[in-house]
Amino acid sequence: MNKTVPIVRTDEWLVKLHSRPLQLCERLTPYFEEATARDIYLHLIQHGMYQPSNDIANIVDQMKKKRMWKHITTIYEALKKQWNSPDVPIFLFPADPHNRKLAREFNSKGGLAYPDKLFLFLLPHHTEKEIKAVFTHEYNHVWRFAKHEKQSDDYTLLDAIILEGLAENAVREYVGDTYKANWTTYYSEQEIIQFWRRYLSPHQSIPVHHPLYNRLLYGLGFYPNMLGYAVGYSIVHHCLQKRGVRFSELMELSSERIVQLARLGE
């Protein structure tokens, strides 16, 4: 594997440490400020990383046989060239095959993006196109972070909604309509407009640590499932399909400007 490409060889880590995730996460502490291996592991679990089980050794073996690390390298190289986007270290780990929500909403694949690193959580059954879809989604976040430098504490609910909308429209544009997430099809256009006006627009400026932030973004409790994600996808899709804005142009614009361009309900 080309050593200049930032795909970290977590396959080699997993051979020895797959049943000891805290020791595995010790190797991640240089990439996080003031976080312990336990902090990191608990955080990654929330986004789809595996937990030790009897089948994990076989899962790792199958992922290696399918050359998933090499495949991600190929996808990364193509997207980086196409987008002129940043270099960040990329970490691949098995996903949690027993996570029901991950299975239902994302077909048991997940990811987590930061401005300076990217994590993918996959299983051996994922096809090349599925892998490309989740990588495209997460790497689009990295590109967006680079275009609009903000501290995580300064992110608003609207920023998160648009971030997810851009990422899944990138999947539609660069991978194919078939590989969009299920939540892009949950609601009609009229429902999306209603949700935006009723639930999201009044709270669009709330920060990450606000009690409503995750509830509105993910549609928790009594809110519609995957609320912020679904509305974000529609806002960006409106800009692309109905307003004729190019995807690369949208990546340059603020979240507020993207909402203005979409003109939901018009």
DSSP E strands, number: 3
Termini gap: 51 Å
Q: Give the integer mean of the pLDDT values.
A: 92
Net shape: globular
Main traits of this protein?
266 residues, mainly alpha, 2 domains, 3 strands, globular
Can you characterise this structure?
The chain is mainly alpha-helical. The chain has 2 domains: 138 residues, no CATH class; 111 residues, no CATH class. The protein is built from 13 helices and 3 strands, in the order H-H-H-H-H-E-H-E-E-H-H-H-H-H-H-H. Strands 1-3-2 form a 3-stranded mixed β-sheet. Strand 2 and strand 3 form a beta hairpin. The protein is globular and about 55 Å long. It starts with 9 loop residues before the first helix and ends with a helix. The mean pLDDT is 92.
Question: Can you give me a brief rundown of this structure?
Answer:
The chain has 266 residues and is mainly alpha-helical. It folds into two domains: 10-147, no CATH class; 152-262, no CATH class.
Write the layout of secondary structure elements.
Elements: H1 10-17, H2 21-26, H3 37-46, H4 56-65, H5 68-83, E1 90-94, H6 100-106, E2 110-114, E3 117-122, H7 128-147, H8 157-174, H9 189-200, H10 213-218, H11 227-241, H12 247-250, H13 255-262
Parallel strand pairs: 1-3
Antiparallel strand pairs: 2-3
Helix pairs in contact: 5-7, 7-8, 8-11, 8-13, 9-11, 11-13
